[in-house]
Here is the input.
Amino acid sequence: MEVDIQELKAGNEQAFRQLMSIHGKGIFNLCLGMIPNREDAEDITQDVFVEAYKHIGSFREGAHIKTWLFRIALNKCYDHIKYSKRQKRHGIMQSLFDKDDNPIELPSNFQHPGIAIENKEHAKALYGALATLPENQQTAFNLYEMQGMDYKQIAETMAVSVSAVESLLSRARAGLRKKLQAYYTSNASS
Amino acid sequence: METNPNIEDQINRALKSVKNIEPVELPYGFSDKVMNRLHAQSNNVRSMYAVSPLLKVAAVFVLILINIFTLRLALSPQPTQSPSQYVTIKDFVNEYQINDANDELLTVNTPAHE
Here is the structure.
């Protein structure tokens, strides 16, 4: 089921509500995957639809509205992550060190309602490790592992080739293993 | 490098922890919240435009007033020296009586030269 783009462009409120009912859940879960906090993810999802409403005129006919919305959502998530990092005032210190040497910082406001309680501690460590990876690797990992997209869909959403997605995923997994190993080793020794 | 089997197990569990994430439903009333935000924003924009013609008229009125004031100031004749200033200088001269004093000095000094 798809929404009539012409109706959306004409500012039809009913069509916009339909758009939210079709894609709202997917966008919300994507945001939760990037930012594991219910309130923050909901705020960002609202921002995504407000922006979509304002800029629907620039949406190219024939393109996939879901892909377009996902791109807006990813940009909003990146902005939020950057803002949070600036708030923590660790930017200068982090830039002084090589990214590979960064220790895992567990998310302080972790509140992902979709993760089972028995997995919460491990998921927190994984999110901490994910946050140290470059943005495109985080996105590829999120879209593949959490959203269950295939390589082709990820390539379309991220506007890269399928082979680039494979490479990003492979580097993301390797990076995560390295970070998690350092984290669990230091936890075991302390 | 060989990894401790226990740590390897923990790494695998962490990597799998997001595999079975349950999709989360949108919070109740999500669409209404978004629509309210959109309505609030469009109302703000509308009220901004409603005020702006009044602001424009007020700005033009203030500009006209400033122009009138400036023109009146520029066209008005330059003020001449005020009589009070003249009186003050005259008073100064009268008070110290410079001419008298000089005459007196001359009168006093005259016998010494003789």
In short: The interface with chain B takes residues 13, 16-17, 20-21, 24-25, 28-29, 32-33, 38, 42, 45-46, 49-50, 53, 112-116, 119, 122-123, 125-126, 129, 145-146, 173, 176-177, 180-181, 184-185, 188 of chain A (CB under 8 Å).
